[in-house]
Known about the structure:
By secondary structure, the protein is an alpha/beta fold. It is built from 15 helices and 13 strands. The protein has helices spanning 2-24, 61-90, 95-163, 186-201, 219-227, 252-263, 269-287, 295-305, 319-327, 329-332, 336-353, 392-409, 430-443, 477-487, 607-611; strands spanning 30-35, 167-171, 178-182, 206-211, 232-237, 379-384, 418-423, 446-451, 467-471, 489-545, 548-603, 617-624, 628-635. The strands form three sheets. A nine-stranded mixed β-sheet has the order 5-6-4-7-8-3-9-12-13, sandwiched between helices. A hairpin with a 3-residue loop joins strand 12 and strand 13 (628-635). Helix 6 (252-263) runs antiparallel to helix 12 (392-409). It is elongated and about 180 Å long. The two termini are 53 Å apart.
Amino acid sequence: MERSTTSGVVQQAETARTRLAERVFVAEARCGFTYVEPPSPVPSPLVGQRPVKGVLEPLDREALDADRRAGAKKLVRRLVVTLVVTLVLSWTAWGDWLAPAAFVIGTTFTIAAIVAPRLRSGEIEAAHAQRAADAEAQHEAALTRWQADVDAHDRAEKDRYEQAPRWFPVPLRPGWSRADVFGGTSDGWASLLTTLGPSIMGSGKDMLVLDFSENAVAADLADFCRAQDVPVSQVWWPSPTSGLDLLAGLDPEDIGELVANVASPGSGTEQAHVRDLDANLIEAVAERLEPPYTFTRLEAGLRVLRSSYRAGHEELLTAGEIKALQGHLDAAGATPTAKDRLQHLAGALKKLVEGSDDTVPEQPPDGTRAGQVWAERGLTVISTGSQYARRKPLYDRAVFHRILRDLRASRPRVRDNGVIFVAGADDLGVENLEALSHQARRVGVRLVLMMRSLREEFQSLLGGADSTALIMRLGPAKEAAAAADFIGRNHKITLSQVTVQVGRTFTEGSSWSEGGSDSVTQGTSTSVTENSSISFGTNKSTGQGAGSSSGSSGSSMGRSHGTSTTWSESESTTRAATWQDTVNHSTADSTSTSETHGRGYEYEVEPNRIQALPETAALLIDPDGHAGRRIVPVDCNPGITLLEGVSNVPHGLPAGRDR
C-alpha cells in the first residue's frame, strides 16, 4: 500500500512537471509575470432605484357616514309620510285598497333609505380593496423584477471579478539586446532561467548558459528542454568526461591571448602590458608545439623554458618540440620580468589542468563540431566548479574568454537566433563584460548577465541605451540604495508632521466684599375735590267721590354744591448693609491635533523594499518608447503558469497584440 501511494505521488509530480514544461515554452520572450488586481465588483446602478409602493388615496369614511346618516334621516321622514298618507287614504272612499298599497310602497321606500347607502358603501369599499390588492400585486411584481435585475448584475460582476486574469506576462521590450540581472539568490536565478529561457527558445532561438554560480541554476531548464524534445548539451568543466576542448580550433596567437586573459586578469595600462608579455610567451610556446594543443602540453613547454622539464621521465612533448623550445630559451628568459611571468604562467596552467583529463576528446560534445564550444541547436550548458578557491576563477575565465574569442571571430549577424546567459559574472570584470556585450551585439546574439551584487564597478552597466535591468533582492544597504537611485525618485505629497498638544489648566480664587447704604425720603401731597348736583321732580294726584272729583299737580327742583380739600405729608428712612464671601475652583482640559503635508522628492521604491524582495521577485526597468521608462514588478516563478487566472496577453493590451 505504501509503495502504491508513493508511486502515485511520483506520477502526479511528473504529470505536473510535464504540464509546466508545456506552458513555459511560448513564442514570446517574457521574464515573468506581474499581478494586477482586477477592478472590484461595481454595485448595480439600480440599487438606488428600488420600486416604491404607490400611495392609495384612503376611503372618505366621513362621506360614507354622512350618506348613512342622510339615509337615516330619510327613513324617519319617509316613515312619517307613509303613516300620514296611509291614514289620510284610509278616510277616503277608496281607502280600503289605497291605504294598504300606499303603506307597502312607503315602507319599501323607507327600507331603501337604509339599504341603498349600505349597498353603496359596500361597493365603494370592495372597489377600494380591489385597487389596494392590484397596487400591492404590481408593487410585488416590480420589486421582484428589480431584485432579479440587481442580482443578475451582482452575479455578473462577481463572475467577472472571479474569472478576470490576475497574472499577466511581462515581455522584454521589442529588439532587446542585453538584460542585466543584479542581486537575487540561486533559486531566484533558476526561476528566471526557467521562465525566460523556454520563452526565448520557444520562438526558435538557441541558448548558451555559462553557469559560474556553482549551484546548477540551469538544471530545471535542461529538464524542461528534454521534456519538449529540445536538444540539450550539458558540460561540467573541468572534468575527465566533459569532452570539452577549449583550445580546439585555435591558432598560437589565439591561444596566447586566451591564456594571458586567464592568468592575468585586471584592468589598467600596467596590467595590459603584463598581459601582452604573457600572450607573447604563450604564443612562442604554442608556435613550437605541434597540434593538438592542450593546457598540459603548454605547461610542459613553459617548464622547458624554465629548464624544469624532465625529458627522460615525461612524454608530454616530442624531442623536436623540446629542441625547438630550448632554442628559444635564451630569448624567453632574457629578463627577470620574463622569468617571473614564466613562473606565473606555469603555475596558472598547472592549476587549470589539475584534476582533469586534459587530453583531446575523441568525440566532441553532442551537437557540436570540432573546434566549436556552443552547440548549433538547442540548449548548451557549461558549468564550472572547484573545491579550491584559487582555481575556480581560472576555470570561469577560461570558458568565458573562449566564448568571447568565438564571438570575435564570427561574422556579423551570424547567430541572430542565439542568446547567451552568464550566471555569476561578478568576477569577470566590467571591461570583459562590455567586450562580450559589444561582440554579442555585433554578431546578433542577445546577452543576459546575472550578477549577485551591484558593486560600484557594475553600476556603470545600469541604464544602457540598449539594456534592460532586472533588480532582484539586494542585501547590502549600499547596493540597495544604488538600485533605488537608479529606479528614480518622484514628487509626492506626504504627511510630514503630526503634532498633538495636550494641556490642563487649574484655577482657584476667592473674594470678599462688604457695603452699606442709608436713604431718607420725604414727600408732601395736596388734593382738592369739588362736586355739584341739580335735581328735578313733578307730582300729580286725582280723586273722585260721589258726585265730585278733585286733582292736584306740582313740581320741584333742587341744587347742591360742595368742595373738599385733602393734604398729606410723609417721610421714610431706609438703611441697608451687604457683605459677600466667594471661593471658586476651575479645571480645563485641552487637546489639539495638527497635520502637516509636504511635497517631497522621494524614492519610487525604497531601498528596504529592495532588500526584502521575495526570492523570485524582481523589478524590471527598461526604456519604453511610449512611457519613457517602464518600471514593472515581476515574479519569475514558472509555477505561476499553472495557476488559474493567468493571461497570455500582457496587461493593457488586447488579445493578439504584442508590445
